[in-house]
């Protein structure tokens, strides 16, 4: 008898450990599998029972509910007020198209046998049969683009590093997930760490790198522990090390812990941090793929980018590129957060509308008040009004609408939000998190917050709005990296889409 209780940080924060302990106290013969979260965060703690007809879900379960579950014979799928039926038939999950997250919430994150039983390592085994150029061609053909925010074609980046000549090359995974409303990297690492390890290993084989580094934020202690255990297991299984699965390829991975700097999510600042220096943005060129970590050719990809590679190799580029629209191919892992009824992970093909994400999957606001604004793409992303809710959620459509997809974070606000205050927050955030290297970002953000504050107070509103737009132009054109260059996006979108909040009059 197997019962699944998530070990994901979100579930742990509301008592998943206590639920698992309560089940074990009542019946110690039960095998309790600590899986990742299915991503339906409003149902946590989600308890699943393995039955001959499939897994039956119950949630949200608290420790106080456990005895009543036993009384209802939940071990055999008994009826209970918290019963959700078969997990795979829960509409919210059944309507998704999970590729990157295909195993998350289903397998034991640290069981290699479970991983293999659900398609794990098929991509790596296929990669070992191909040349590096053939692997890169497959990734290029799939249309996979960076999921960290820049959306640069992964195959082009890989080919650049592969063509560079060096005695050492690196694969760096950027797991410094700092955007507001984003948690997919953490959930994948805690729920299916082997798929990240597999993707990094394939990348190493493709470009000739022998060392991988995961830059993981210190705020994710459970992810750090889970990933390190997974690396140790893979190394003991001869997957990582001097002979990858008995081949002539060598590849190993280590974790480096970030100290909490948002700007270290920028690829060159991350490299500085890994090298033991202050996290300051580097000028480009040279590109990291040519001269990156310790001056060596370095591939830098986000967690979700690398974790998608195994499926592409296993099933072929055509299966992946069949999803999506235009140049936005494959699936995107959207993260619904903020004032939303059904927050969590929604993975689906590019092209779904913002309205469908927010109202169909998200269920509207948690407060039941009218929707007013949605921020897409983290703290530097644009604010969208309800008039823009039919926008297609793909890279090109969002850019055309004045926004960006970023890492796929979506934060929802009801009609009580003041967008002038949110715009000020963007400038304040930039001032705090700036590395300080360039003047437009370091000084511009401080002046920007002061100017918005004057607008809010009703001081020379028209004059200060013009000044603010001029300042935004300077920051966009003159900043060294996206930290200062994108901070004007939430400010300008708030001013354009919510002009009534910038009149200096109290709402």
From TrEMBL:
Residues 420-465 form the NADH-ubiquinone oxidoreductase 51kDa subunit iron-sulphur binding domain. GO terms for molecular function: 4 iron, 4 sulfur cluster binding; FMN binding; metal ion binding; NADH dehydrogenase (ubiquinone) activity. The keyword Iron-sulfur applies. The keyword Metal-binding applies. Transmembrane segments: none annotated. Keywords: 4Fe-4S, Iron, Iron-sulfur, Metal-binding. Belongs to the complex I 51 kDa subunit family. This is Unannotated protein.
């Amino acid at each position: 008898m197997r019962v699944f209780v998530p070990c994901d940080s979100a579930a742990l924060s509301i008592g998943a450990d206590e639920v698992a302990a309560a089940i074990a106290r009542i019946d110690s013969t039960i095998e309790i599998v600590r899986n990742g979260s299915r991503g339906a965060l409003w149902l946590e703690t989600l308890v699943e029972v393995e039955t001959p007809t499939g897994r039956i879900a119950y949630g949200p379960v608290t420790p106080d509910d456990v005895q009543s579950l036993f009384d209802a014979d939940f071990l055999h799928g008994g009826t209970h007020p918290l019963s959700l039926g078969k997990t795979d038939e829960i509409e919210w999950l059944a309507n998704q198209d999970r590729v990157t997250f295909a195993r998350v919430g289903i397998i034991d994150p640290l069981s290699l046998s479970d991983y293999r039983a659900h398609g794990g390592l098929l991509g790596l085994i296929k990669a070992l049969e191909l040349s590096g150029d053939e692997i890169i061609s497959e990734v290029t053909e799939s249309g996979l683009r960076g999921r960290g925010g820049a959306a640069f074609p992964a195959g082009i980046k890989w080919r650049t590093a592969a063509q560079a000549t060096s005695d050492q090359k690196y694969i760096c995974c950027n797991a410094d997930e700092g955007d507001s409303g984003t948690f997919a990297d953490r959930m994948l690492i805690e729920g299916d760490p082997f798929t990240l390890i597999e993707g990094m290993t394939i990348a190493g084989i493709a470009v000739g790198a022998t060392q991988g580094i995961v830059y993981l934020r210190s705020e994710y202690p459970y992810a750090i522990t889970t990933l390190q255990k997974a690396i140790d297991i893979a190394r003991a299984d001869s997957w990582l090390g001097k002979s990858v699965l008995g081949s002539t390829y060598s590849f190993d991975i280590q974790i480096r812990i970030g100290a909490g700097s948002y700007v270290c999510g920028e690829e060159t600042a991350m490299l500085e941090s890994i090298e033991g220096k202050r996290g300051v943005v580097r000028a480009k060129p040279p590109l990291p793929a040519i001269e990156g970590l310790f001056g060596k050719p370095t591939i830098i990809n986000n967690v979700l980018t690398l974790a998608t590679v195994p499926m592409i190799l296993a099933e072929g580029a055509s299966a992946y590129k069949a999803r999506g629209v235009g140049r936005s191919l494959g699936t995107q892992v959207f993260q619904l957060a903020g004032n939303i009824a059904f927050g969590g992970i929604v993975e689906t093909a590019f092209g779904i509308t913002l309205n469908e994400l927010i109202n169909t999957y998200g269920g509207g606001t948690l407060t039941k008040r009218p929707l007013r604004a949605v921020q897409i793409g983290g703290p530097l992303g644009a604010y969208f009004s309800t008039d823009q809710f039919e926008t297609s959620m793909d890279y090109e459509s969002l850019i055309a609408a004045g926004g960006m997809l970023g890492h796929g974070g979506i934060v929802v606000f009801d009609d009580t939000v003041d967008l002038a205050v949110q715009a000020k927050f963007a400038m304040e955030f930039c001032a705090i998190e700036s590395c300080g290297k360039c003047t437009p970002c370091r000084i511009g953000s401080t002046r920007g917050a002061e100017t918005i504050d004057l607008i809010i107070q009703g001081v020379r509103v028209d004059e200060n709005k013009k000044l603010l737009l001029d300042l935004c132009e300077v920051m966009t054109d003159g900043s060294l990296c996206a930290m200062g260059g994108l901070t004007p996006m939430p400010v300008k979108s708030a001013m354009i889409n919510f002009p009534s909040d910038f009149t200096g009059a109290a709402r």
